[in-house]
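Quick one, tokens below:
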């Protein structure tokens, strides 16, 4: 009986310890910068993205929605993030800035139990 019980306990402990989320960039950049004119940047990594979130000042302000084309689109104010479901790349789009100050948001890309943080900034005019 001991021989069956101990492997089950070990498997359960491994499963429970693997449920924690870990910050890993997985090849994605830590920072992306746009000029005041805005634009589009495509970034890639080596893990599939399962979902995206946008944070402002540490609060989640937007999360991605899966559309009919199997794309995940996340938008908040001046920033849009697009990716195909289970794709290892993100299309980051910034609208033109009409502000004098630099603006910043953070993208969280979810890979399952891992995630990347991409800080996005844009120059003011």
């Amino acid at each position: 009986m001991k021989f069956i019980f101990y492997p089950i306990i070990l498997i359960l402990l491994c499963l429970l310890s693997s449920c924690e989320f870990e910050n890993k960039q997985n090849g994605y950049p830590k920072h992306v910068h746009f000029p005041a004119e805005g634009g589009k940047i495509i970034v890639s990594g080596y893990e599939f993205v399962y979902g995206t979130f946008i944070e402002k000042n540490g609060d989640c302000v937007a999360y991605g929605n899966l559309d009919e084309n199997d794309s995940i689109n996340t938008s908040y104010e001046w920033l849009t993030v697009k990716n195909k479901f289970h794709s290892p790349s993100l299309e980051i789009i910034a609208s033109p800035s009409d502000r004098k100050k630099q603006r910043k948001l953070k993208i969280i890309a979810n890979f399952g139990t891992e995630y990347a943080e991409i800080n996005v900034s844009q120059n003011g005019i």
